[in-house]
Amino acid sequence: MRVAIAGAGAVGRSIAQELVSDGHQVMLIERDRAHFDPNSVEQAEWVQADACELSSLEDAGMQLCDVVIAATGDDKVNLVVSLLAKTEFAVRRVIARVNDPTNEWLFTESWGVDVAVSTPRLLAAMVEESVTIGDVVRLMTLRQGQANLVEITLDESTPFAGRAVSELTLPRDAALVTILRGGRVIVPQPDDTLEGGDELLFVTTAAVEQDIKRALGY
Questions:
Q1: What is the pTM of this model?
Q2: Secondary structure element (H or E) that encloses residue 67, with its range
Q3: For the chain, which domains are there?
Q4: Which residues of 124-136 are buried (b: 16+ CB within 10 A; e: fewer)?
Q5: pLDDT > 70? residue 63
Q6: Are the CB atoms for 84 and 90 separated by under 8 Å?
């Protein structure tokens, strides 16, 4: 894929390095001369420009990108970049960094955002995941808030131990996508059995999150 990243600070450069190593074409757009360092990610294309200016994005070739990541440290900039990418250049997938959790409600389809990534929320979720048994932990919001990736950890005495995945009576708008067990990542099949301590990852709507919890006996 061709990916444009607005913001070449520590976050933007780290994302670029990961994507480049996976074989993607990456363009880093940075306005601040202090952060403009092509030697830090040599395989990426570097553009010194204001990512909030439509003409700059046109000149950079934003219209050729499959994905745009708004990764600056300024939420206002990330919103503007997301909106321009979606409305002016019809970019298929727009991912935006949320710096201030109080601004998270703005990062929706209305601003062109497909996926909003809030570092404070993710860190809080990781803490909750490590200490919470039987509660729904929301890890990520997907599709402009239409769906969430959530996790529930089964306690060691769960009555579902030894029972097949097919025996779970889940709500209509929920899908079990992964079971984490020790160091294993299991893509669940109907005949796979559950064990105490399993971490179950679901893609679901917010409306039925508590229904999943009840389906697991919590």
A1: 0.64
A2: strand 67-70
A3: 2-119 (3.40.50.720), 132-216 (3.30.70.1450)
A4: ebeebbeeeeeeb
A5: yes
A6: no
